[in-house]
Amino acid sequence: MIHVHELTVHYAEQAALQDVSFDVQAGECLVVTGPSGCGKSTLARVLTGLIPQVIPAEMEGEVEVAGLAVTHLPTAETAQHVGVVFQNPRAHLFHLRVADEVAFGPYNLGLAAEEVEARVAWALEAVGLNDLSEQNPACLSGGQIQRLAIASALAMRPKV
């Protein structure tokens, strides 16, 4: 499902990751932990294709997610296969309704309105926010914001 082999990432002259290798099979769970600045976010950005497609960095090694070489795909295509929630989800909110926030990604895939509505309902139910679908995200608690970000990722129905 995820294959990383000898991944090295440099920003300018600074190494963010050095010779990282691992495999995660379908059904397995991997926890990435460590101190600030150790490369966790860099790894997530590589797995989503943001590095090197959107964020400039020198990268070496092999990275495949769900059988796709994500570092060579357009980020819009990668987003259909890989979901990620970054550490400050409040910074990524820009809609005035919870349901619209969750619907943003699926609508950008060009899905029919009925499919988008079904995905939104399913994702909000999965994270326990279905009763707050009409609320303004700015009124949510920190924990609810985190669950909203997870719902937004789930609504894309990523493989990873």
Give the C-alpha Rg: 17 Å
In the predicted model, the low-confidence regions spanning at least 5 consecutive residues are none
CATH topology of the largest domain: Rossmann fold
Strand content: 15-25%
What is the H level of CATH, i.e. the homologous superfamily of the largest domain? P-loop containing nucleotide triphosphate hydrolases
Q: Mean of residue pLDDT?
A: 93
**Physical arrangement of strands within the biggest beta sheet:** 2-1-3
Query: Count the strands?
Result: 3
Explain this structure to me?
The protein has about 160 residues and is α+β, with helices and mostly antiparallel strands. The protein has 2 domains: about 80 residues, 3-Layer(aba) Sandwich (Rossmann fold); about 70 residues, no CATH class. It is about 35% helix and about 20% strand. Strands 2-1-3 form a 3-stranded antiparallel sheet, with helices on one face. α4 crosses α5, α4 packs parallel to α6 and α5 crosses α6. The longest helix is centred in the C-terminal third of the chain and has 14 residues. The mean pLDDT is about 95.
Give a quick rundown of the structure.
This protein is an alpha+beta fold and 160 residues long. Helices cover 34% and strands 18% of the residues.
Question: Which key terms come to mind for this protein?
Answer:
globular; Rossmann fold; 18% strand; alpha+beta
Topology of helices and strands:
Elements: E1 2-11, E2 14-24, H1 40-47, H2 50-53, E3 58-65, H3 75-78, H4 98-108, H5 113-126, H6 142-154
Antiparallel strand pairs: 1-2, 1-3
